[in-house]
Every structure is written in structure tokens, then in C-alpha cells.
Design a protein that fits this description.
Serine Threonine Protein Phosphatase 5, Tetratricopeptide repeat, single chain, 247 residues, 0% strand, mainly alpha
Length: 247
């Protein structure tokens, strides 16, 4: 009992988030055994959580810990602490959906990006992030609106000339904006039958596969492109995001 509490006391959250989480969990496992009903332990956890949040600029990487703390403080009728940890859960969700929204926007998957960013704002990101999230959302919505306005005319043009390269690339881009991934892949394949090594069509086909959830297939395309042009930030980002989504 004393060992768990002493261990948490000496931990510096800036050294390791995971070590801090492990120590907090160990104390929570024993919280009912403390003579003061865990009051001192909960105060210490509160201090460590705040220090970790300020250092890493994000809440604990553990939804379970926050839920455990909420349940404990509910039993103690400590509404302020319940509200604090519920806010931390909201910040976690806001951060998750902000990252997803930013990632999908960078891939040109703007309908999905808009939905993620709207969800992030619903959860209430930290004040320093709200403006940036709103700006990204506005950009994504504009691209979706532009795609909606132009896609019908582009498709009619392709009906007359299915392999017009400029119109084909623009059409595939707009189809991805609109989450019409199957159509985007089919149109990209039409172009790739003619221009097998076209990097724009390969990249956009990869983005459509990514948006459809076929991360492994997308990664194959992105890796090929990165081998051809290893300095491309777009290709590097696409490879990294695909790896992240496959975890």
C-alpha cells in the first residue's frame, strides 16, 4: 500500500506518460484500503494528472483511468472533480477527432474530414486549438461545396472523352472530396490504363483506397510513389498516416 503511493509521489510525469499511468492505476487498485478513504491518494493523482496534462499538452492516454476517477469522486459527492475528469474525457475525444479530421483533410477526403472536425468541436477542444479546428473545417467544407458544384459537369465531359487527363484527375479529386471512393478508384484505373506511371492518378487512387478503409492497398501505392520521389512531403505523410491507421 505505502509502496504504491510512494512510487507515485516520486514519479515525474514528464519522464514518462506510461510510467505515470501505471503508477496511478496501482494506487487506484488499492484506493479503498487507505485509512483516509483515499483522500490523500486522490489529491496526489490530481496533481500528477494536471502536471502530465500541462507537460504533454493533452490528457492522460487512458480513458479507463478517468472513468475510474469519475466513479470514485461520484461516490464521494465531489461534483467538481467529476466535472474536471469528464472535461478531460471530452478533451481526449476532441483531440482524437481533431487528429482524424486533420489527417483526412490532408488526404483530400474532405467530407469525412468535416464530420470528424465537427465532432471534435462538439466535444470542445482546448481553447488554443478551437480557432485552428474551425479554420480547417471551413476549408474542408469549401472543398466539398466546390466538388458538389463541379462534379456533374466534369462527369459529363468525361462521358465524351473518358481519358482527358486534366478532367480525369480533377474528377477523381472531387469524387474523393465527396467520399465517392468506389467511383474515384474506377476513374483512376481508367486513367492508369493509359498513363500507367502518372503520379497524380496513383496518389489519388491511394487516397481513395485510404478513404474506403483499404489501408494496406493504399500503403502499397504510397510506398511506390515515395520510392520514386523520396523528398515528397505528400507521399511521406500518406505513408505515415496509412501506418497509423493500421495500428
Amino acid at each position: 500500500m505505502v509502496d504504491a503511493l510512494e512510487k507515485l509521489k516520486v514519479i515525474d510525469p514528464s519522464d514518462s506518460m506510461q510510467n505515470t499511468l501505471d503508477a496511478v492505476n496501482e494506487v487506484l487498485d488499492r484506493i479503498g484500503s487507505y485509512d483516509d478513504n483515499g483522500t490523500a491518494a486522490l489529491q496526489l493523482i490530481s496533481q500528477k494528472e494536471e502536471k502530465a496534462r500541462n507537460y504533454y499538452l493533452r490528457p492522460f492516454d487512458s480513458e479507463d483511468i478517468y472513468n475510474r476517477l469519475i466513479d470514485i469522486h461520484k461516490e464521494k459527492d465531489e461534483d467538481d472533480m467529476v466535472a474536471r475528469y469528464r472535461r478531460c474525457l471530452d478533451l481526449r475525444e476532441a483531440r482524437k477527432y481533431t487528429i482524424l479530421g486533420d489527417s483526412y483533410a490532408l488526404m483530400g477526403i474532405n467530407t469525412t474530414a468535416s464530420e470528424y472536425l465537427e465532432t471534435a468541436l462538439d466535444h470542445g477542444p482546448s481553447e488554443d486549438l478551437v480557432e485552428e479546428v474551425e479554420k480547417t473545417l471551413v476549408r474542408a467544407r469549401k472543398r466539398v461545396a466546390k466538388a458538389s458544384d463541379e462534379i456533374h459537369i466534369l462527369l459529363m465531359k468525361l462521358d465524351k472523352d473518358p481519358t482527358h487527363q486534366k478532367n480525369l484527375i480533377k474528377t477523381v479529386t472531387h469524387l474523393i472530396d465527396l467520399d465517392r471512393f468506389d467511383e474515384a478508384i474506377l476513374r483512376a484505373d481508367v486513367g492508369l490504363d493509359v498513363w500507367k506511371d502518372d503520379p497524380d492518378l496513383r496518389y489519388r487512387k491511394g487516397c481513395a483506397l485510404f478513404g474506403r478503409g483499404d489501408m494496406e492497398e493504399a500503403l502499397v501505392l504510397f510506398n511506390v510513389l515515395l520510392e520514386i520521389k523520396p523528398t515528397s512531403n505528400n507521399y511521406k505523410r500518406a505513408v505515415n498516416l496509412s501506418h497509423e491507421m493500421m495500428k
